[in-house]
Structures are given as structure tokens and as C-alpha cells.
Amino acid sequence: MFVNKEYKDNFILLTFNTGTKYNVFNVKFMTELLDTLSEIEKEKKYRFIVFKGENGNFGSGADIRELNRASIDREFASSFFNYMKDLYLKLINIDKITIAQVEGLAYGASLELLLVMDFVIASKSAKFAAPGGKIGVFPPVLLTLGPYIIGLNNVKRLAMLGEEITAEEAEKIGLITKATDEIDKETANLIYKMSFMAPSSLMLMKRHIMKYLDRDLSEVFKSLIIQVGGDESKEGINAFLAKTKPSWLVNLSKLQ
């Protein structure tokens, strides 16, 4: 099992461990999390879900080996990215308040997962990046939802420059709610404050805040499925696995 569910006094804790150094998005993780969220939707007693990666990291994004398979197998690419799209849509539309706890890295698809959470509490040492363009795979959720959440220029910086940012910077641009060394305490404080809200009021607020976020996801994932099967994505992914440089980097030194 990659996803573990634990019932607390006033929230459900979901921890995930994909058995790798950094937690990754692969088909097994995505299908398990989708199934778990479908189960949780039936739990009317609980209004809050807390998400946490084990092994000291939230996640490093899509599993590079499954991306490699997707680059040569169109059917697998369609399945892989549709599971990913369905997971983001599930989190946007689920009738619960979602809170992510971030330690270590939140890269790529894992960073994009934060964009569909209601609140994000991160350790001060956490790092955030969307470097997919370096291997020829663009970040679909960052491009579609990011301008609405963190602003157009911040999306350009993360997606088009591939820069890593600190938790302090992530808080400033609105990617995360709070950077703190007391993640559990801050999470408890958030839940305590929201507990003063009438349950129906809280859910309606979430519904109307989030209702615009899923409007372009289907189209952008169609583009991603096409892109990942292109020559540049194949080359970029293979270069990453082989620890070599793709062709667009070979002459980079001449530009400096």
C-alpha cells in the first residue's frame, strides 16, 4: 500500500510512501489515492483531510520511469495522465477541506498537487520547483490554475525558468499558506479556526472558490499526452535517465 489512512479526533490523515527516496506520482499511487478519496467522501463525520508524504519529502513529481514508458506508449500515456487529471479534479471537487503538510521537496506534479489543496503548511526548509520543461514535459496544472492562484509572473518563473524556490518565497507568492517549523501545531490551529464555521457554510465557500479551477484541465492534459510522445520529450526523458544532456543543452555554453 502506498497510501495509509488514519482517523484522528477531527480529521483524516493520509500519509503516502511510494517506496522510493522521494515520493513519486505513478499509476499505483494515483489509483490508490483516488480510491481512498472516494471512500473518504462517504465519511460525513469528518470535514478535514490532511495529506503528508513520508520519508521526509512531500514528493518529487511524476515517476520518470513511467514517464519514459508514456513517451513510447500512447495508450499508457493516456491512462497515466488521465489518472493524474482525475486526481486533481477529485481534490478540487471533494466535499472536504484539504490541508497539505510539506516537508523536503515538492517538485513537478507534487507541487501541482498543492495548487488544488485548500491550505498548505510547509516546513521552513521545504523546496518547491516545476522543472518538467527541462526534460520536455510541461506542468499542466501550474499553467492552467497557477495564474489564478499565484499570479502569471510567478507561473512564468516556476514553469519557464524552472527555478527552485524556498518556503519563504512560496508563502509570499501564495503557493503555500504558512511556512513554519511547527507544522502539526499550525495545522491544528487551522482546523480549530474553521471549526467555528457552520459545516454547510464552509463547504459552500470551498465549492464557490474552487469552481473555476477545473475549467481548462481536460484540454491541457490532452496537449500533455501529445507532447510526451514527441521527439523532444523522448530525448529529454532518456537523457535524464542516462545522466546525459539533451540536444538543446549541448551548445548552451556558447550562449554565456
Automatic annotation (TrEMBL):
SUPFAM superfamilies: ClpP/crotonase (SSF52096). It comes from the Archaea. Gene3D superfamilies: 2-enoyl-CoA Hydratase, Chain A, domain 1. InterPro entries: ClpP/crotonase-like_dom_sf, Enoyl-CoA_hydra/iso, Enoyl-CoA_Hydratase/Isomerase. Coiled coil: none annotated. It holds the Pfam family ECH_1. Belongs to the enoyl-CoA hydratase/isomerase family. This is Methylglutaconyl-CoA hydratase. It comes from Acidianus hospitalis (strain W1). The lineage of its organism: Archaea, Thermoproteota, Thermoprotei, Sulfolobales, Sulfolobaceae.
